[in-house]
Amino acid sequence: MLKNILTVGSWTMISRLLGLVRDQLLAAFLGAGSLQDAYQVAFRLPNMFRNLFGEGAFNAAFVPLFTMTLTNKNQKEAQRFANESFSVLITILFIITILAEIFMPQIVRIIAPGFTVDKMRYDEAVALSRITFPYMILICAAALVAGVLNSLHHFGVAAAAYVSFNIVGIAALLWLTPFMPNAAWAAAWGVTLSGFVQLGILLYAARNAGMRIKLCFPKLTEDIRHLFRKMAPGIVGSGITQINLTISTIIATLLPTGSVSVMYFADRINQLPLGVLGAAAGTTLLPILTKALQNKDPNAAFDAQNKAIDYSLLLTLPAAFGLFSIAVPVISTLFGHGAFTVKDVYASALSLQMYTIGLPAFVLIKVLSPGFFARGDTSTPVKIGVFTIFLNLILNLIFMKPLTYMGPPLANSMAAIINVIILAVILYKREALSVPIPLIKRIVAMTGASLMMCFILIAITHLFFINLPEQNILYRLFSVILLISIGGLLYGMTLHLFKVIDLRQFSTRLKKKILK
Fold it and tell me: Where are the transmembrane segments (predicted)?
């Protein structure tokens, strides 16, 4: 399991690093102003539907059903089910896309009401949204094919395909910008073009794996109806998450110009460990849990869940505390160029600190949710999500005026913490989660080591790196590398003293891997 998590995590890390390059170009070309705000809202729309119909609800329902069909029947039946699901999904999304293109002005008014006072920003958001929205069809179809590959345990290929999104995005910004009205248009076209590339790569990989996914006449067969019944609560659950994010977007558009942008760049840094660790653990855990439960082996299911919790928190806790302590150096080094001012750097760094408060909770949600999905329960997370919608809305309204661009990130973090607590309690009461005492002790030790690292990094930053955003880029880069190195050494040495890890054993294994 660790090998699969590291495989998916490695490809996700490459994708995230390339994503940072893409975001650096966006920050340098557009800064944190009205045009950047318009682009971020346009990019938010297809992402919202991707999470609604693609990677979230669909995978939660499709992967267990496809895995069971493959295990209990045969590959031919699994192939038929995949083709039917692929065709029906694309048909539904195509209809949604046509309607969205027609009513885009009204949609933008709903999700970005603050833009209506600035006609240029509103018009740009409508135009850019019409360019990016077809990406939703392509990426949702890609999510289905990736689910097939993950069920076949081809985790690496599925994860590697998503690297192309950022490669195409970077190329579009660099080469299409001179031929477009502005860089935001180039970035928007890059989003849609990347969808074709990702889907093409995944279809080719599935064909090589023995699954030729293709379109057929869409029919509501019994298997598809069963899939929809499983999807329905998941769509509502994913919809709840998207409502939370939409609430944050609406609040941000009502804040001063640039708030949407500074929050976006902060979230991109926060998404680096979240995407690498949370998505990797959740993606690899679901089929493993499903198989263990199909084989009526609850101990294997408990073991897989606990390993996912352990591996995820081992890296997520230091990432959260570390990012909180060096938020200004990180944002300054990555985005403090071109049109992205020193003021933007400090604003984005404060937003990042609020996001990191909830980072471990967001990762644990990804790890605990498969505990419900693998058992065929997609409704319980929905009930929990309904509560978090109201909690997130109330917190956003409370924090909106006093905290401005820090309010939505803090509200999201607090809602995520409550969410993961409720998930864990329900799984425990259902005897679907059993965390042994040694794992609890390891988590306490990891938290203590992360806190110690955080305090020391904050002290070093305040003593030696004053006014860092105003320094030259080489100095900033050196500072970030030094701070990360110090933090990593402190964390590793403290865990070694707490006997959570054995550095000598780790060093030996690392040498063997390098030599191999």
Answer: 88-112, 132-152, 159-177, 183-205, 245-266, 272-290, 311-332, 352-372, 384-404, 410-428, 440-465, 477-501
